[in-house]
């Protein structure tokens, strides 16, 4: 009963208070920034650190849908461009965005959008919970991993002259961690959508 009431409150709030969208976008931009407080770890042949911030991207897309999820990352990147040190390792400014890792960061926008798009299309409350979990996980992998890797690798090729195939292969070291993040995002998203049914537009 409490869960149903809570979900109805969120649904009604979205219909009557458009300010909620702004609040949610800001909240998930902040969440992604907070996840950057973990010190980055650089491994492999790519000058790209392992961070928790892609977990924020996955959560934004899976919980907010395509447009609000993507806008949360646009807001974060705009703040970084303004000089705020919101990226992992306390990085900020245009230099951080235009450097070798810039493609991965801008890829967060497209990644969150794809995750949200797939979640809205595939998530069905009438289905068994495990089917929805598989759907959200697939969305997180496609948007939060593949899309981000492609954007990052393309930018690496442009900025460093690294062969695109080599850049793609270099992402292999990130896959175990990113898969774990996709699992975490899936568990959180399924629980939240079950409790707050009006959070994401269907």
TrEMBL record:
Keyword Metal-binding tagged: no
Pfam family of the protein (one): BioY
Keywords, ordered alphabetically: Cell membrane, Membrane, Transmembrane, Transmembrane helix, Transport
Source domain of life: Bacteria
GO molecular function: biotin transmembrane transporter activity
Keyword flag Membrane: yes
Protein's cellular compartments: Cell membrane
A GO cellular component entry from the record: plasma membrane
Residue intervals passing through the bilayer: 20-38, 44-64, 71-90, 102-123, 130-152, 172-192
Membrane topology according to the record: Multi-pass membrane protein
Chief subcellular location: membrane
Family: Belongs to the BioY family.
Descriptive protein name: Biotin transporter
């Amino acid at each position: 009963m409490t869960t149903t009431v809570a979900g109805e409150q969120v649904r009604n709030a979205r219909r009557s208070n458009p300010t909620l969208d702004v609040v949610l976008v800001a909240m998930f931009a902040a969440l992604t920034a907070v996840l950057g407080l973990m010190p980055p770890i650089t491994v492999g042949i790519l000058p790209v650190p392992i961070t928790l911030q892609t977990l924020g991207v996955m959560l934004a897309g899976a919980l907010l849908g395509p447009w609000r999820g993507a806008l949360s990352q646009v807001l974060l990147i705009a703040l970084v461009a303004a000089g705020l040190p919101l990226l992992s390792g306390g990085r900020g400014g245009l230099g951080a965005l235009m450097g070798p890792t810039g493609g991965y960061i801008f890829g967060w926008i497209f990644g969150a959008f794809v995750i949200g798009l797939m979640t809205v299309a595939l998530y069905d409350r009438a289905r068994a919970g495990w089917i929805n979990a598989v759907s959200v996980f697939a969305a997180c992998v496609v948007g939060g991993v593949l899309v981000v890797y492609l954007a990052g690798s393309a930018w690496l090729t442009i900025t460093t002259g690294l062969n695109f195939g080599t850049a793609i292969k270099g992402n292999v070291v990130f896959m175990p961690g990113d898969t774990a993040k996709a699992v975490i995002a899936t568990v959180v998203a399924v629980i939240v959508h079950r409790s707050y049914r009006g959070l994401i537009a269907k």
